[in-house]
């Protein structure tokens, strides 16, 4: 299997292969806006689950505002140890350090293969290749992960167990912020049996990072995506027409809303457009993202409780499985996939 990491290490690159050079929008630089971390919404999970009703109510309101106005927030006081997060990142590095023959069994062809290892986004349709290797594992309702390196699977399983609890509380808070019953999203989206895709991204160092892109502007499928990264940045979100580099608070999770939360809320909560830029000439960026969605056969449509005469239905229902197939079969391009099911 082809590995961009191995290619970079073996060739001592001084120039970028032409099939990796991105034609960037001329407005991109003018759209870049340096927000201070404090300007990005911060949600305190300890307040969200607090027994003090005022604290909980205020945090639910903040959560709703973040989902409506940003589609993105940093989560603090979440109860997942920094040690476990560091072990996940370290183990992820060890996986990408494996030789090609040790990873060849994970070269999947089908979007629903339990484990897939590859490069770019979809090399069959990408007009320009992206500066990225990746590992994708479905970790719920059945857990899958590579058996190598030693201890990798166990570390990922422990991590997934912990963040499932976090996401469960966030979805309860989001339900309440919409004026719905606390377990509305859990029940309507079959979350207990839902689909969870863990994606580990490896962005190798690049001699001319300004010429390449890790991942282009896009939105995620699913309801929420939870992400950690190593010390090297690269995530940017689009807000009010500006690209905002995200500099996480220490030991925080980065959370973004996905297309299916936008569908479920009939557009009240928008999925956030984001991208991964390559910034480092000497070191690799690693990020670990987990996308949470319903069961693959759940038809996701706007919640009837949120529809009114003044807020008519905006999206047609679609099976989660069909939506993923649609997104994964074409190039990543902002909200192009979501646009196809707008009414």
TrEMBL record:
One of its GO terms (molecular function) is metal ion binding. Residues 193-294 form the Fe2OG dioxygenase domain. The keyword Transcription regulation does not apply. It comes from the Eukaryota. InterPro entries: DIOX_N, IPNS-like_FE2OG_OXY, IPNS-like_sf, Oxoglu/Fe-dep_dioxygenase_dom, Plant_2OG-oxidoreductases. Keywords: Iron, Metal-binding, Oxidoreductase, Vitamin C. PROSITE patterns: FE2OG_OXY (PS51471). Pfam families: 2OG-FeII_Oxy, DIOX_N. Belongs to the iron/ascorbate-dependent oxidoreductase family. This is Protein DMR6-LIKE OXYGENASE 2-like.
């Amino acid at each position: 299997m082809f590995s961009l990491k191995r290619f970079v290490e073996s060739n001592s690159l001084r120039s970028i292969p032409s099939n990796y050079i991105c034609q960037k929008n001329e407005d991109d630089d003018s759209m870049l806006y340096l927000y201070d971390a404090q300007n990005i919404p911060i949600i305190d999970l300890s307040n969200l689950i607090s027994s003090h009703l005022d604290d909980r109510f205020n945090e639910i309101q903040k959560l709703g505002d973040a989902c409506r106005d940003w589609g993105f927030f940093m989560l603090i006081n979440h109860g997942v140890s920094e040690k476990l997060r560091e072990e996940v990142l370290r183990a992820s590095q060890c996986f990408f350090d494996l030789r090609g023959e040790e990873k060849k069994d994970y070269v999947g062809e089908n979007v629903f293969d339990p484990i897939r290892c590859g490069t770019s986004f979809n090399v069959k349709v990408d007009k320009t290749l992206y500066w990225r290797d990746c590992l994708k594992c479905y970790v719920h309702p059945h857990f899958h992960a590579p058996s190598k390196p030693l201890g990798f699977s166990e570390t990922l399983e422990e991590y997934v167990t912990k963040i499932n609890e976090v996401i469960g509380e966030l979805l309860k808070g989001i339900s309440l912020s919409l004026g719905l019953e606390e377990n509305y999203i859990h029940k309507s989206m079959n979350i207990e049996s839902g689909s969870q895709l863990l994606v580990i991204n490896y962005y190798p160092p690049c001699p001319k990072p300004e010429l390449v892109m890790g991942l282009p502007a896009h939105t995620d499928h699913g309801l929420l995506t939870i992400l950690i990264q190593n010390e090297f940045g690269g995530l940017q979100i689009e807000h009010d027409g500006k690209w905002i580099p995200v500099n996480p608070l220490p030991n925080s999770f980065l959370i973004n809303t996905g297309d299916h939360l936008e569908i479920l809320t009939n557009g009240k909560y928008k999925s956030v457009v984001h991208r991964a830029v390559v910034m480092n000439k000497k070191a690799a960026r690693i990020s670990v993202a987990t996308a949470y969605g319903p069961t693959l056969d759940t038809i996701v449509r706007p919640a009837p409780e949120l529809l009114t005469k003044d807020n008519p239905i905006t999206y047609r229902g679609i099976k989660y499985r069909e939506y993923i197939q649609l997104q994964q079969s074409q190039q990543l391009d902002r909200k192009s996939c979501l646009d196809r099911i707008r009414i």
